[in-house]
Amino acid sequence: MNLIETNRLHLRKISVDDSAFILDLLNQPSFIQFIGDRGARTLGDARRYISTRIIESYDKFGFGLYLTSLKETEIPIGICGLVKRPALKDADIGFAFLPQYWSQGYAFESASAVMNYARNALNIQRVVGITTPDNHSSIRVLEKLGLRFEGMIKLFGEEEELKLFG
Question: 156 falls in which pLDDT band (50, 70, 90)?
């Protein structure tokens, strides 16, 4: 069931049936570089990641990352949604797309819809964004969403400083 619809995209909750797509996405070199290695190397690993990270977020917070697919074909192209991290007071907008779908406006389109969903359906008034300092594409999307650079932060247990946008 689609949770959010845009002109070109459908966003819905991710299920363990999406394991093959999630496994592919998590192992893209760009995902590992800019977001991190989630250690998912098999379909079983992907199912565990979906169960313990994504579905658990839906249950605990009422939101999470959503499978983003093309409206016309229902082909999955990425994920977009809200993440609640222990190190951050606010939920943050997260998105990742297969490289063949970059530079076509899908990240901004889906993230804009998620921001509206957060405000209007979930009554979340403040959503932040975090990214590595060298992820210029994500920085552009966050700025286009109206978020502004607030400073550098480190998440618990992480070495790398991240840019925080709010």
Answer: confident
Residue closest to 51 by CA, chosen among 78, 93, 13, 97:
13
pLDDT at 79 over 80: yes
Using CA atoms, how far apart are residues 105 and 119, in angstroms rounded to an integer? Answer: 21
Q: Residue 123 — pLDDT band, cuts 50, 70, 90?
A: very high
The answer to whether 11 and 81 have CB atoms below 8 angstroms apart is yes
Its sign, for the CA torsion 133, 138, 143, 148, is: negative
pLDDT at residue 1 in the model: 85
Two tokens at 36? Answer: 């991190």
| CATH number for 96 | 3.40.630.30
What residue numbers bound the domain in which 64 lies?
Answer: 2-126
How many domains, in total, are found in the chain?
A: 1
Query: How many beta carbons lie within 10 A of that of residue 36, not counting itself?
Result: 12
d(CA 57, CA 28): 23
Please give the model's pTM, rounded to 2 decimal places.
Answer: 0.94
Q: Is residue 148 part of a domain?
A: no
Residue 52 burial (C-beta neighbours within 10 Å; 0-12, 13-18, 19+): exposed
